[in-house]
Amino acid sequence: MEMHDHQEQNVTWREVALVYLKIGTIGFGGGYAVLDLIHCELVEKQHWLTEQGYLEMLSLAQMAPGALTVNILSGIAFRLGGMKTMLIATTALILPSFFVILLLAGLFFTWQHNPILIGAMAGLTAGVVGLMLAVVWKLARRLPQRWYYYASGAVAFLLSFFSGVNPIWLVLLGGMSGAAKLFAQKAYINKNAQ
Amino acid sequence: MGILWLLAFSFLKIGFFGFGGGFAMIPLMHDLAVVQNQWLTNSQFSTAIALGQVTPGPVAISATFIGYKVAGIMGALVSTLAIFLPSLAVMFLLDKFYLKIQNSQITQSIMHGMLPIMVGLILSVSISLGKPAVHSIWQSVLIIVVMVLALKKRLNYGFLILGSMVTGILFTLYS
Description:
- The complex is a heterodimer of chains A (194) and B (175).
- With 194 residues, chain A is mostly helical.
- In chain A, 81% of the residues lie in helices and 0% in strands.
- The two termini of chain A are 42 Å apart.
- Chain B is 80% helix and 0% strand.
- Chain B is built from 8 helices and no strands.
- The longest helix of chain B has 35 residues.
- Chain B is globular and about 60 Å long.
- The model of chain B has no long low-confidence stretch (mean pLDDT 89).
- Chains A and B meet through α1, α2, α3, α4 and α5 of A and α1, α2, α3, α4 and α6 of B.
């Protein structure tokens, strides 16, 4: 419960930024691998938040758009020290990967016609496609098991693949259809209750 | 100047609509960088995603790569800030209104409505990326191996991409 009070923890923004810099440097691979690291650093080592506080933050982070790890860490930083800590610590988190990817991008665009890099690209494309298919499978299993959700996923796939509709419109439509379905169900229940 | 505004605006939008985790941003980034603007080819885009996996930090960092290709260091900086800012803004709002939002039916329904869309979009992009680039049997086998390892063994995504690169180099040089 103490996690609801920003002043309860006596942590300075420097301490938070330092731990976040560490996570940003060794948190390799993204997603659930990094979640384990975050739990170990912030809950077990630093005791900055309780197990319950962590789970609460995880559920918030899943509601926000974007990378789960950035969401959960920025949320925790905000609770530890407000807006200033949130901004500085999240910058510290992203900084290492920012510099590494900048360096790699520079190297890549200089050497992209080198036969070794062409080979690496043939391999990594297959790897990326494999990972994305794995994510498709994982997300699909999180869907509620109703024909409605499978149908809307299939429609989104067909529209995006064959007609090149802007995907942001499809996401908006999906959200709106979810809300509309809820209202329709409520109206139906009310009607039957009368 | 115009190109930096375009990058900032486009990546802010992507940051706001990438519901369902970092991978949900991939279709949105692909539409921006490959389909609408032809800033990157499909294989350069795959490289951006792969580098996002082998570097520490989240996959959204691929925005840095795209921004760099379009407008150098400034482009990289603007794109990076723009793609992460919405996460911070939304987490701030969620923290403020947590008790109202938590378990609210309407939030649940909207999320459930968006999730299948993301599944469809990611599937569509993975085919768009694979189709022009996968010509050999070893690549098809590699796709299946990576997929199975990511699902069954919960192997680190970064290692899987590194392994794919090494496999690619070996097959290209010795075949």
